[in-house]
Protein 1
Amino acid sequence: MKNIAIFASGTGSNFAALQAAFADPARGVHISVLVCDHAHAAVVAKARTAGVPVVLVNYKQCGSKAAAEQYIISKLPTIDLIVLAGFMRILGPDLLAAYPRKIINLHPALLPSFPGRTGIADAYEYGVKVTGVTVHYVDAGVDSGEIIAQEPVRITAGESLDELETAIHAVEHVLLPNAVTELIKEGAI
Ligand code: GRF
């Protein structure tokens, strides 16, 4: 059984997708903990309902990113992988050094196009005909680490941004659990 930590800041639809995908112990993945930087985020309630332990971290109260990351590291159980699923922060050197090649991120565009916080809208506004979803290793840059998995999503004529967001999220909910399973099969974790 591989133990994973999920880091998320908001709604948590990807947390829910991972939880559903790995509810069957035969999939070999146990969600050990949710790390969240917003006490009132919907993902916190989702984790509590699912019985997943929650570590809340208040970056402001910690005083610095380094202090916040040391706090997170001190609270994490033994884990094989950290999955950033809508965690809206750039990781600092402490977490990266503590988990080398063991941190992956989900990004709602086809990297290296449209990195950053607004990848879906940026692709839509640019007018690309194909965007998509990327799972990648996390490094010190913004959405710049080695790509693990990608899935294209077509933008059809007349499609609204809302419709595109729905389509992107639907793809995310399948691609992310599958990428975790692939990493296990490959022996990467
Ligand atoms: C996802 O679109 C993910 O790609 C991005 O943040 C969003 C999180 O959504 N990094 P949710 O909280 O999992 O619903």
Protein 2
Amino acid sequence: MSYKKISVQNRFFTAYFMGLLLSQWISGCKPHALSLSQGNVREPSAQNQATIRVGEVSSMTGSEATFGISTHRGIELAFEEINQSGGVLGKKLQLMTLDDQSKPEEAATAATKLISENQIVALLGEVASSRSIAMAPIAQNSKTPMISPSSTNPRVTEMGNYIFRVCFIDPFQGEVMAKFALNDLKVKKVAVLRDVDSDYSTGLADYFTTAFKKGGGSVVIDESYTSSDMDFKSQLTAIRAKKPEAILVPGYYTSVGLIARQARELGLQIPLLGGDGWDSPKLVEIGGKALENSYFSSHYSTENTSPKIQTFVSKFRQHYQANPDGMAAMGYDAAMILADSMKRSKTLSKQDLREAIATTQNFPAVTGNITLNEKRNAVKPAVVLKIVDGAFHYQTTIQP
Ligand code: PHE
């Protein structure tokens, strides 16, 4: 999918910025290819802008493109709603999005660009933990509040007091899948197959292992791959020899889809287990039938009948003719929490805004009520979804 825009919520500004930005935003081009120097000369500081500018760093292209596209749509929908109801403090929100091509170094470059050249008051992003970890020091050093919608590795918010997230963290997510494997699937012997390129995958594999052993289970083999791998047969053959009852594959959807197919080709019919990194429509496109009767944890379920969720799902479907996955909901929630914090902030200085975000309490978000704790993480339940006939079906909710 080609992606050709910076999301501007207001036609006047669209015209204004088109002149400044030419065609350099997104369009699959590298953030470092952008040049906004003309904009710098003319534009006053953040608080004097006619709009409130928010930067977004997302993987709009590359191996995790659905993460970025979904998140972006969720944010865009939230900003449209906020602007239609008068904006924030009398100003419209303006979203400036840069594509990081699913690469950590590009996420860092994009964050630098947005902060140094675009007078943004805050950053939304990234989804993948390794990319949030790459951009967080840049946000922290410039004292720009950053909210990751859905990076779950603990290190993300440990990078400094300007870094927040609106999702749960992986020690909890690992425990969720360990409890589910032990108590619901009643399995005791699990194999692990982890992506060693990803902070998310290695973290989740470790947290699952700790919780699973604590609950009386054993990890009979722990194999690894890297995100560019396409052939997992040797790891899966070694796993088969250990006769596990399930395989934990805490990776992202592209690798997981391929792993599922190759596991079935080798005659492994046991369930595969995973985390929120599976939550993409592409998962089943790639893995097909091989994913039937597998389970993963995520942030919400579109099958939940709560009015808050159903209103969001129908608005999203109307807008994009697509179902909102977990990241779309998290993008929407992150944007709504940022806007709410702006409304509660004394001024729109980055410091005041940071204080306001830090005191977010019981915010009624789509994915649950969100309170940010002293570590700037959200404490909230996770859901477990089962793949049946190629669709994700709600199984259970696990409380923190
Ligand atoms: N939690 C994943 C990470 O930290 C990212 C992710 C979130 C993936 C939500 C899919 C859905 O890298």
